Amino acid sequence: MLIRPRRLRKNQKIRDLVRETVLTKNDLIMPIFVDENLKNNEKTPITSMPGQFRYGVDSAVKECVEISKLGVPGVILFGIPTEKDEFANSAVNENGGVQKVISKVKAELGDDLLVIADVCMCEYTSHGHCGIIKGEEILNDETLEILGNIALSYAKAGVDIVAPSDMMDGRVLKIRNVLDENGFKNVSIMSYAAKYASAFYGPFRDAAESTPQFGDRKSYQMDMGNSREAIKEIELDIKEGADLILVKPALPYLDIVKMAKKISNVPVGGYCVSGEYSMIEAAAEKGWLDREKVIYETLLSIKRAGADFIITYWAKEVAKWL
Ligand SMILES: [Zn+2]
């Protein structure tokens, strides 16, 4: 007798019945760039990420309302300040763009939208690195103080989840302690546990104006050849108190997503980064790929690999299809 797997593929109904992985709106988180250099109601397109924008405060709030209405459960905010210095001082400004958007969105939408804020120094530093520098060295422990203060500032504004993306050692524990000591025990931490030093972040750095002014990020972000090291990073972050973890980028690191899901007992997210977005948009613009089908297949592959949720620049659009 010949075994015939094709019997389960013979029409759409049977394929629907036996499909193992489905993508839903509840899987999606939309990144939003808040630019303090724009007027409140302005938005400006990001050239290297067609279809994406940087938003002034009020237009970011409006965008969040639309996203919530479409059924997307959450947004993650990134800030672009008017002033940068060596210590990322503007990141803790209580009147900063991100802080304002957090408090306005929470006032308007309450629990109808999860507001996540990326916690890092690089968008706010003159040198573009994710920590304090001494010469060309990125100092770990000194940086933790500042990351704790940034997380606290977002917590005071009303954020639901803080998402440290810097890859300094010990930052999850530091942030957890600072939040708890200040009465924010219900603010969650989504750590970028396995974040690789990837060339796929290129378009984001345009968007967030966060390109390092010297050197690269290889002394703190992970080496692309390593997977066992990801286990170490993930286990450490969970031990330090991470409520959710992220693997970044997603598509070139699906093996890491799969492994993260296998070894951890907290929800795992995949961050489908700017380069993943822009390469598909560019190929679609040239007519080389069927845009919608490739986007769906890409996001489904991240979920199939094990992601419980996906941060994606397509979240708003895909929510309309699902
Ligand atoms: Zn950073």
UniProtKB/TrEMBL annotation:
Gene Ontology terms: cellular component: cytosol
Pfam family, one: ALAD
GO biological process, one term: protoporphyrinogen IX biosynthetic process
Classification via PROSITE patterns: D_ALA_DEHYDRATASE (PS00169)
Pathway participation: Porphyrin-containing compound metabolism; protoporphyrin-IX biosynthesis; coproporphyrinogen-III from 5-aminolevulinate: step 1/4
EC number(s) from the headed UniProt entry: 4.2.1.24
Keyword Metal-binding assigned: yes
Active site feature: K195 (schiff-base intermediate with substrate), K248 (schiff-base intermediate with substrate)
InterPro entries membership: ALAD, ALAD_AS, Aldolase_TIM
GO molecular function: porphobilinogen synthase activity; zinc ion binding
Binding-site positions, 5-aminolevulinate 1: R205, R217
NCBIfam families, per database record: PRK09283.1 (NF006762)
Similarity comment: family membership: Belongs to the ALAD family.
Protein's UniProt name: Delta-aminolevulinic acid dehydratase
Originating organism: Methanococcus maripaludis (strain DSM 14266 / JCM 13030 / NBRC 101832 / S2 / LL)
Gene designation per UniProt: hemB
